[in-house]
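Quick check before the chapter quiz. The format below is the same one you will see on the exam, so make sure you can read both the input and the output lines.
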Amino acid sequence: MIKTNHLIDIVYMNGIPDALRGPFWQMFTGSVYYLITHHNEYSDLILHFEHQTSLATMEIEKDIHRSLPEHPYYQTNAGRDSLRRVLRAYSWRNSSVGYCQSMNIISATLLLFMGEEEAFWMMVVLCEDLLPDYFNSDMIGSMTDQRVFEDLLVLEFPDMSKHLNKVGLSIALISFPWFLCMFLGYLPMECCLRVLDGLFASGKQGFILFKVALSLFKLYQPTIMALKDSSEIMFLLKSLNVSNNNTTTSSSFSSSSSSGNNSNGGSGGNLSYYSGGNNYAGNVRNGVAGNLSSGVPAPPVISPDVLMSSVYTDWNGTLSSDYILDRRNHHRAQIIKEMEESFHKDQEIKLMKKRNEEKELAKKLASVPLPTSNAIPNPTASSNTAATTNKEANSNCKLHLKLNTDERPIEKKYREGKMKRTLKRESKVLETARKETIARSELRVR
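Here is the expected output.
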């Protein structure tokens, strides 16, 4: 397939029919070529690591039941097992990423339109090509994009940005989960699928996520500016009023899912739960309206078509790929520098803590007398007495060795050598005395 601007225009403005979403997503991202050239890798991973566990697999087990739990397919063991295999296989393939929360929601959505192996390779492309470093343990990619988005918000909506700072609301608290989940769970499903259509069609390292977020802030700007409490703004932006008046999903997905599109254990259900006419959007609207302060304008009800039209037309002039890449490079370098400074600061704190411990150890050492070689036991003493004395000497020397284990290398080496020499000398003296005592006892017996 050759992607043209005209094709991308159609995808942005109309979306992809459900019956074609799976194949089109794979061709747009190139994951279909991974599928062809690495045909047995997924099954080999499943077989090889089937009975092995890791920290990632334990986290996956916790999140399996939280993955689109309202959908009929994931209320069955077949659906949950299919999702589990995809997530486990990817965690073993890319151990540097392993598993990150939100990967379960993304994989569960992909499995509604394609089989397990296809969804696995889609996750590979998404995590390693489209959104690199988004799901790593340090999450540098996602943190970088949060700062880029803050720059964009200041650039496009300076008054709203000042208002959010005034009420003490960090933008990252809202945008971070949006970007990490690709808006899945924060917008009704039909709207999320339209976002995924645009993301996979345009690629460009997730630039569409910035456009969607800016469009949402633009459409909700009057309500946001009227709110004076940060908690109300948070609730508003986490319960977005996007109406699903586009019924394409409910009508077409039912036929596509039953036509064998999911050959590897795909969904047997449909997305009608999320489509227009359901209670989801209505409950969200009622919840938001009932929790806003009096006199605040009601938030708008936005259709997916309106949202995607704003995404496609409002930011083409100002939101260039060169600008985003430049801001990404700038903030990425800044974040890495901050991480290095934080690491060095932690090291200094640990060093200071260790020096304080050394001082405490020095005080304890000064209060414990060193064993002396002058105190030679009485040769006439019994062998038990000699053994007891030897034991006490060993214990005393070991105490000194223990107290000096955390000292500086030179001091530690010197003291350890001194203690060892003392212990060896004392042991030799005590052993000689013990042998003499035993010999005398044998002579008396004779």
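If your answer matched, good. The radius of gyration is 34 Å.
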